[in-house]
Amino acid sequence: MNQFSLPGCLIIEEGACERLNEILADCIPEIEKKKIIIVTEEALIPIMKPYLDEMKRDLPKSELYLVEENSFQEAMELAKHICMEDIEVIIGVGGGKVLDVAKYAGFVGKIPYICVPTTLSNDSLSSPVSVLGTEGDARKTLKCAIPAAIVVDVNVVMGAPLSQLQSGIGDTISKYTALYDWKLDAAYRGERVDDFSYLISDMALSSLCYNEEKSLKSKEFIKILTQSLVLGGLAMEIAGNSRPCSGSEHLFCHSLEENYKEIKISHGMAVALGSLVSCRLQGRDDHLLRSVLVAYGIDLDPMNWGITKEIFTDAWLKAADTRKDRHTVLNEVTLTKEQLGGIYEQLRAGSECSGVFKE
Ligand SMILES: [Zn+2]
């Protein structure tokens, strides 16, 4: 069985940032005596200033570091600083960019990492990987450790842009097709899926799909989405790989990123669109996924994301090649331009009846 760790502390509550120092002291004994680096970004300072000031006051040996880009280079520079200055704890306060850099720098520097997300755009907040930019526009998924603690202030996340929360929903519902692909992969290799990890990822999916709260900006919904994203990350940690959360729908997303860098679509939205297609390729009904996405006002027309029929078709035809070691439904069906063109038209037609929420 894969060796895995779990966060020592998981707090999801209203006003958590107002008592952050108290929570941190519970997670890390004698934290006030330790050298700490608090990692955030310039754009968040106006929103998070009261909490950052309080942390700096109660943690006298702390310093602030502002992330500029989520690159491997920046994470390594931060890791070098951690090692050279004997920093003992890293706290990431922010969205995906900040958290991925802080998580990887903490892993390389071999120090505990505490995650304080300000938004919920994907399941990387608790996952054992960081996605960082490398040469040019290329991004790489790097293995690392999960956070020692996760502290989510529901009130802070409520202030996140709607589109980021919708992206978090997209990343969660993609487990529907990822789990199916994982079973296909296991059958192909003559192996078993990790039952416990499968169950946790399935719980992450179900708790979002079958909840009654359809208002994106309600406290109850933010708690449900946080739990789903955290569970997704933990499923990956337990499996020792990303299979419980990443199947052919993620390959479509990678294909768009690698071949069509000009398309500006979030990870969660790309995998949500991918899931609707993977679902059909898997010979399954996409009604459940579509109803959840529509309920949260998510735009399912690929054209509105700048994805033309040609791009859509080509991205799917190249999807399997983005991770050749992965066996998914894409290895079990023969894709044709005509078939994919037909699915594209159906996606566009089906999205007409949905009410899209935008800020
Ligand atoms: Zn994902």
- Structural classification: alpha/beta
Broad shape: globular
Question: In CATH, what is the class of the largest domain?
Answer: Mainly Alpha
Give the C-alpha Rg: 20 Å
Regions with little confidence, pLDDT below 50 for 5+ residues: none
Task: Give the DSSP E fraction (strand runs of 2 or more residues).
Answer: 5-15%
- Can you tell me the number of structural domains? 2
The helix content, as a percent range, equals: 40-55%
The CATH architecture of the largest domain: Up-down Bundle
How many DSSP helices?
A: 14
Provide keyphrases for this structure.
359 residues, alpha/beta, Rossmann fold, 2 domains, 6-stranded parallel β-sheet, two-stranded antiparallel sheet, 11% strand, binds zinc ion
Can you walk me through this structure?
With 359 residues, the protein is of the alpha/beta class. The protein is built from 14 helices and 8 strands. The protein has 2 domains: 9-157, Rossmann fold; 162-351, Dehydroquinate synthase-like, alpha domain. Strands 1-8-5-4-2-3 form a 6-stranded parallel beta sheet, with helices on both faces. A two-stranded antiparallel sheet has the order 6-7. A hairpin with a 5-residue loop joins β6 and β7 (139-143). α3 (72-84) crosses α4 and α6 (162-173) runs parallel beside α11 (267-281). Residues 122-123, 171, 245-246, 250, 267, 271 line the site of zinc ion.
Write the SSE topology.
Layout lengths: L8 E5 L6 H8 L8 E5 L4 H14 L3 E5 L5 H13 L4 E6 L1 H13 L4 E5 L11 E5 L5 E5 L5 E5 H4 L4 H12 L1 H15 L5 H15 L9 H21 L8 H12 L7 H15 L5 H9 L13 H14 L14 H15 L8
Parallel strand pairs: 1-8, 2-3, 2-4, 4-5, 5-8
Antiparallel strand pairs: 6-7
Helix pairs in contact: 3-4, 6-9, 6-11, 8-9, 10-11, 10-13, 13-14
